[in-house]
């Protein structure tokens, strides 16, 4: 059984509230997404997220962005969104944020697949390159931001793939000696 960890070596996920809404939209604009195409039609009501988090640097307690789980469909698929301020996010924190959010989805929700999307502009933050990416789909020239059209890459992870990943213990996201399947103990100092 997975434990819904909300802290990695460098970041912590804190629950976001409605008072964080303005900061969320400012982060989206700073990330360059303010000029992107609308995902939903104007007549479509956007559903509330199933989970929304502030992404906070553990070293400074500074909020650097947001992470969401939203749009759960009847097939058991949910979308993962990560929105980080490019001036404040360090290399690799995007990857840690995505992994914590994916793990949270599988640990707390009855889902079979977590889906996320990004562009090449964000690859470095997530530890992906154009040569080694394993995108499940690519939409050419789909988003306009940062002054140009970008291809949008779709990625997904199935529950079994995530279980295999955490069982291999191939990552160094959680602080030692924590493991994805074990609850942290207070004496480890994880807050």
Explain what this protein looks like in three dimensions.
InterPro entries: Acyl_CoA_acyltransferase, GNAT_dom. Pfam families: Acetyltransf_3. This is GNAT family N-acetyltransferase. By secondary structure, the protein is of the alpha+beta class. The protein has one domain: Aminopeptidase, CATH 3.40.630.30. Helix content is 21%, strand content 28%. The protein has 4 helices and 7 strands. A 7-stranded mixed β-sheet has the order 1-2-3-4-5-7-6. Strand 4, helix 2 and strand 5 form a beta-alpha-beta unit.
Structural key phrases:
alpha+beta, seven-stranded mixed sheet, GNAT_dom, Acyl_CoA_acyltransferase, GNAT family N-acetyltransferase
| Major sheet characteristics | 7 strands, mixed
Q: Spell the H/E element sequence.
A: EHEEEHEHEEH
Give the class-level CATH name.
Alpha Beta
N-to-C span = 21 Å
Count of separate structural domains: 1
Helix fraction bin: 10-25%
Main β-sheet, spatial strand arrangement:
1-2-3-4-5-7-6
Main structural class? alpha+beta
CATH homology-level superfamily: Gcn5-related N-acetyltransferase (GNAT)
Beta-strand content bin:
25-35%
- Work out the helix count: 4
CATH architecture: 3-Layer(aba) Sandwich
Write the CATH fold name.
Aminopeptidase
């Amino acid at each position: 059984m997975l434990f819904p960890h909300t802290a990695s070596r460098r970041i912590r996920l804190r629950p976001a509230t409605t008072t964080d809404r303005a900061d969320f939209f400012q982060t989206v604009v700073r990330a360059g997404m303010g000029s992107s195409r609308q995902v939903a039609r104007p007549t479509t009501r956007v559903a509330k997220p199933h989970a929304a988090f502030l992404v906070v640097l553990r070293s400074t307690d500074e909020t650097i962005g947001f992470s969401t789980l939203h749009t759960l469909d009847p097939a058991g698929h949910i979308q993962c969104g990560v929105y980080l301020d490019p001036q404040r996010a360090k290399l690799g924190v995007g990857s840690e944020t995505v992994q914590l959010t994916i793990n949270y989805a599988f640990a707390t929700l009855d889902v079979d697949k977590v889906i996320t999307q990004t562009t090449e502009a964000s690859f470095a933050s997530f530890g992906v390159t154009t040569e080694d990416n394993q995108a499940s789909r690519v939409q050419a020239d789909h988003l306009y931001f940062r002054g140009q059209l970008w291809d949008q890459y779709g990625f997904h992870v199935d529950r079994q793939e995530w279980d295999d990943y955490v069982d291999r213990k191939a990552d160094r996201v959680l602080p030692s000696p924590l493991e994805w399947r074990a609850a942290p103990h207070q004496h480890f100092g994880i807050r």
